[in-house]
Structure prediction request, 525 residues.
Amino acid sequence: MQILRNGKMLFSMPGANALAVDRGYILAAGSDEEILNLATAETPQIDLNGLSVLPGLTDAHIHLELYGESLQIENCDTPTRAACIERIRQKAISTSGSAWIKGHGWNQNHWSEGYGTALELDQVSGNHPVFLTDVSLHSAWVNSQALQIAGISASTPDPEGGRIQRDVRNNPTGMLFENAVALVESKIPPTTPDQRKQNLYAAQQKLLEFGITSVHDFDRMPCFQTLQELHEEKDLLLRVVKNLPVDQLPAIIEAGLRPGFGSDHLRIGSIKCFADGALGPQTAAMLEPYELDSANRGTLLLTAAEILETGIQAAINGFSLAVHAIGDRATQEVLHGFDLLRKYETEHGLTHPRHRIEHLQLLHPANLGRAAALRITASMQPVHLYNDMETANRHWGSRCRYAFPLASLLSNGTKLIFGSDAPVESPNPFWGIHAAVARCSRGKDPSEAAWIPKERITVMEALQGYVHVPHWQAGQDHTLGRLEAGYKADLVVLDHDPLTFPIDQLHLIRPCGVMVDGKWVYHNW
Ligand SMILES: [Zn+2]
Prediction:
């Protein structure tokens, strides 16, 4: 047994300052006096110095494998070209064998020196081929070894729709544009199972440091297999609810799998399908055309009838659907599909699975109450607000009044669960909490800069979406998401109390200790 005392326990008994933790579970929560009564002279005690403690947070929409991969990619968003080259030099030193070095995010407009050359990379890259994409993904800066592997020389013609930059003697300089990027990219070997395992392990470490102890993953089957290997090797510390792609549904049914199958650390979740694209590329399905492009209403990928058909197969086998829907047409169509599905479930005596809509970025006002009425969970990513506010204003115009309608959904009784969609955005949950509560960029004053201020929610409401409701969604809320006797000892000690910290600084909160199954998996004290 160990005792944590002199803290402030959130999501616990009123006034609890202390916890007794034993064999991975919380044995008791209460006042310092009550809990210290349980101790013997040998019981280890940790004085929390008044710090706040939360149950471990959940990221309810993440791509673990892609996030792990993104951590291996060097950040090339540097103030100068020289600084970028220095990063590649460091990376070459820490990279073994002749593995590729990948980087992303440079912008020659931010560099007084402009575009780089292969020669400059050659001088720092040793044995390693180098492939660095620019921030727009429309060009790449590569070294001579990469050019050689791709067979690009003075005599290589420009590909259709692409350009190889050349010097006066026609030799490639190392800059590739548009379709020429693929000449090198296609030569980069695919991730091996071993690398995938290392990537997932790195992702796990990062997430634990952010205070995330549980995730709902949306990557595909190779990720699931690698997670199983990590689990076998006792290296899986995160609790992963693994959602599976809809194209696998027949195989899943054939194998007789059911949701919840697995263990405390890896279990099967929902069936994932897509009803539309995204806001940025204007492929999210819209009831009315995008502003500035009166011909485009995006792309609807699933009809209500198709959701019903897939949903029946899923529901008969106990599965819920998790349907990606961003535009107001897609969210409407999905809600209509769920309406039909709920009726079918009722008529056929099926239990109602906890279906969910992923993203739900824009709702037509007529549909605001429907998710709650149909008991559909809204799985949203407040952190997307940071980058989407401007884009949404441009493409959705006055429709933005119903974009990211967090407060409206909550007031209708909708269950909200929050995630990041990492690597699309940072998985730091305190950025997400700040975004949900402040609805403005980090560093701005929310009382002046909030985007659609009526949709701001309280810190406690935001915490619910990260701490407790995701476990309800996964059917694990009787053992996870509270600091009370009988719950798993997954917890996060924070450097500041989110309930009293200034709202415009919520994104700065950091964990100073993270516990999973009663063991410290990260601390910086
Ligand atoms: Zn996603």
User: Anything to note?
Assistant: Residues 61, 63, 218, 421 surround zinc ion (CB under 6 Å). The two ends are 20 Å apart (CA to CA). The mean pLDDT is 96.
